[in-house]
UniProtKB/TrEMBL annotation:
Protein name from the UniProt record: Delta-aminolevulinic acid dehydratase
Protein encoded by which gene: hemB
Alphabetical UniProt keywords: Heme biosynthesis, Lyase, Porphyrin biosynthesis
Subunit structure, as described in the record: Homooctamer.
SMART domains, per the entry: ALAD (SM01004)
Any one Gene Ontology molecular-function term assigned to this protein's record: porphobilinogen synthase activity
InterPro entries reported for this sequence: ALAD, ALAD_AS, Aldolase_TIM
EC number: 4.2.1.24
PANTHER family registered for this protein in UniProt: DELTA-AMINOLEVULINIC ACID DEHYDRATASE
Family: Belongs to the ALAD family.
CDD domains: ALAD_PBGS_aspartate_rich
Organism of provenance: Mariniradius sediminis
Length: 323
């Protein structure tokens, strides 16, 4: 035998030399859940190790993460029902606790990159990402609301906006509003290929943001579809997105690779709540080694072509690297 691939696997040093994919703490954006008040902290039942924090505790968490080398955060607010309405009005109230928190995080940690979520669901009494009328999600009327929300987030100091709503034309609409108001440097990471997925379940528990009626299939993509992701990618690119995101990650590695091969924009992948929960739950049962399963999953997302990974494992990963 002239060729023996095992020679390149014979020791740790050689294996590391030929390693094709390497994860770094710099690859990550860490999603954080924010609640109103102070000294408030509650664990998300379906996401062991992940907490909803009030701003004071979130600032501590961010400080710890910065020391570990995690520099980017995607902050999601959990609003009580009393603050929700049909039009998600609270989302662009300049005094709302979410926007206050963004201002405070940027004031305390100017080096941190803060990403925000642009979608109506945490503020909507219907629990949908868009405006609901007679059981239908209205696209263009939703854009008006998203535009106000995006502008309020940019004014609060967000570095990257993440439109996660899947309305048509939202990236272009938001880009135009940002530019007209002097926010030319605020980036857009578009949820380009966001699928109607069962893997968002624990996130909706965390924010109490499940749709009150129906599902999200008229705006989020059908898991059966692959080429359709190219249509979304083409539109988001023309409309001015700075990053294209695929979500979820693990069941859509093929879509990550597809966008990577067809676009020159950086590709992000969202390793979602359900993907986190599965590994944690199996680990708790002793059915697999959760740390190895985590590392292997994260590696697969990067290998598929993602240069940015949004993951609830970000901090745990950084702790492993540090030790
Ligand atoms: C809301 C939004 C969702 C997630 C991020 N932004 C949920 C949804 O679309 O229902 C899911 C994140 C996760 O599951 O970790 N627009």
């Amino acid at each position: 035998m002239n060729r023996r691939p095992r020679r390149n696997r014979k020791s740790q040093v050689i294996r590391e030399m030929v390693e094709e994919t390497r994860l770094s703490t710099k690859d990550f954006i860490f999603p954080l859940f924010l609640i109103e008040g102070s000294r408030q902290r509650s664990e998300v039942a379906s996401m062991p190790g992940i907490y909803r924090n009030s701003l004071d505790l979130m600032l501590k968490e961010i400080e710890e993460c910065l020391h570990l080398g995690i520099k980017a955060f995607d902050i999601f607010p959990a609003y009580p029902d009393s603050k929700k309405d049909k039009f998600a009005t609270e989302s662009y109230n300049p005094d709302t606790f979410y926007l206050e928190a963004i201002r405070e995080v940027k004031a305390r940690f100017p080096e941190a990159v803060v990403m925000t979520d642009v979608a109506m669901d945490p503020y909507s009494s219907d629990g949908h990402d868009g405006l609901v009328e007679n059981g239908k999600i209205l696209n263009d009327e939703t854009l008006e609301i998203l535009g106000k929300m995006a502008l309020a987030q940019a004014e609060a100091g967000a570095d990257i906006l993440g439109p996660s709503d899947m309305m048509d034309g939202r990236v272009g609409h938001i880009r135009q509003i940002l530019d007209r108001n002097g926010f030319k440097d605020v980036s857009i990471m578009s949820y380009t290929a966001k699928y109607a997925s069962a893997f968002y379940g624990p996130f909706r528990d965390a924010l109490d943001s499940a749709p009150k009626m129906g599902d999200k299939k008229t705006y989020q993509m059908d898991p059966a579809n692959y080429k359709e992701a190219l249509i979304e990618a083409e539109l988001d690119t023309l409309e001015g997105a700075d990053f294209l995101m695929v979500k979820p990650a693990l069941a859509y590695l093929d879509v990550i690779r597809l966008l990577k091969d067809h676009s020159n924009l950086p590709i992000a992948a969202y390793n979602v709540s359900g993907e986190y929960a599965m590994i944690k739950a199996a680990g708790e049962k002793g059915w697999l080694d959760p740390q190895r399963a985590m590392l292997e999953s994260l590696l697969s997302i990067k290998r598929a072509g993602a240069s940015v990974i949004l993951s609830y494992f970000a901090k745990e990963f950084a702790e492993i690297v540090k030790n």
